[in-house]
């Protein structure tokens, strides 16, 4: 479980999130809200990319302030733009990077690389330059790079925003098929209909926290 305890987040003197307390335990949780409402900032709090100004974030009991490395291993993070996530020029090198850091054996790295690339029908791209992949393939590579590190939670920050409809469908399918707990920040309401819980941020606070069939219509009303 991810436990958010009385978290306030401010950049300089501008408060983005105000005294938020939440227990995230469902398998599929969505975070929605207007532009600038703090979705990305909230997502980044969950794996210690951003620290709360006040309060604490605990991941399976580990505080992001004191156990950053362990937390980042438990909570994989997928950025909106895969170009920010893909750091090595060749697909298999990029996948190997995180696993090498975790001291996985060579054989294990090779096997996990094969498994994840076949899962996404990208096995023949193993030795491809990453920058030549399509937008959808890049996002799948970014997701793959997170999954091979075997996280318990996967946080995705607007992973479909830059994609065309076909690639959006591929990523949606990939997200729906994840066995991990998923926490997804998104503007894309189509993605969220099968989720367990939708949390709506508005002006630094939680405006709605409910199942999609209740939360989404409320959100649409709030935005109109
Ligand atoms: N590192 C930072 N330093 C200062 N201000 C920041 C920083 N990161 C975000 N902000 C500001 O905090 C506010 C919330 O940003 P955030 O990206 O979390 O919102 P969001 O809901 O994800 O927005 P969007 O839907 O546009 O992606 C914005 O006004 C943004 O400009």
TrEMBL record:
Instruction: Give the ABC transporter domain ranges.
Output: 2-220
What keyword terms does UniProt attach to this protein? ATP-binding, Nucleotide-binding, Transport
The region annotated as signal peptide is none
PROSITE patterns associated with the record: ABC_TRANSPORTER_1, ABC_TRANSPORTER_2
Q: Does the keyword Nucleotide-binding apply?
A: yes
- The yes or no answer to whether the keyword Transport is present is yes
Q: Which GO terms describe its molecular function?
A: ATP binding; ATP hydrolysis activity; ATPase-coupled transmembrane transporter activity
Ranges in coiled-coil conformation: none
Q: Name one GO cellular component term.
A: ATP-binding cassette (ABC) transporter complex
The UniProt entry's sequence similarity note says: Belongs to the ABC transporter superfamily.
This chain belongs to the protein called: ATP-binding cassette domain-containing protein
């Amino acid at each position: 479980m991810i436990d958010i305890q009385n978290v306030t987040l401010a950049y300089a003197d501008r408060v983005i999130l105000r005294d938020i307390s939440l227990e995230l335990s469902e398998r599929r949780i969505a975070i929605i809200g207007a532009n600038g409402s703090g979705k990305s900032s909230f997502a980044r709090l969950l794996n210690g990319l951003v620290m709360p100004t006040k309060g604490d974030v605990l991941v399976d009991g580990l505080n992001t302030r004191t156990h950053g490395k362990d937390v980042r291993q438990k909570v994989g993070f997928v950025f909106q733009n895969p170009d920010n996530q893909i750091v090595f020029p060749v697909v298999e090198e990029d996948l190997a990077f995180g696993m090498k850091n975790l001291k996985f054996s060579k054989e294990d790295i090779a096997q996990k690389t094969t498994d994840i690339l076949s899962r996404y029908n990208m096995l023949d791209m193993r030795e491809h330059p990453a920058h030549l992949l399509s937008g959808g393939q890049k996002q799948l590579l970014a997701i793959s790079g997170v999954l091979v590190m075997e996280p318990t939670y996967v946080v995705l920050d607007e992973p479909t925003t830059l994609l065309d409809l076909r690639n959006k469908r591929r990523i949606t399918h990939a997200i729906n098929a994840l066995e991990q707990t998923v926490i997804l920040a998104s503007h894309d309401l189509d993605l969220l209909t099968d989720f367990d819980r939708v949390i709506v941020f508005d002006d630094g606070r939680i405006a709605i926290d409910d199942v999609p069939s209740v939360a989404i219509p409320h959100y649409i009303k709030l935005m109109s």
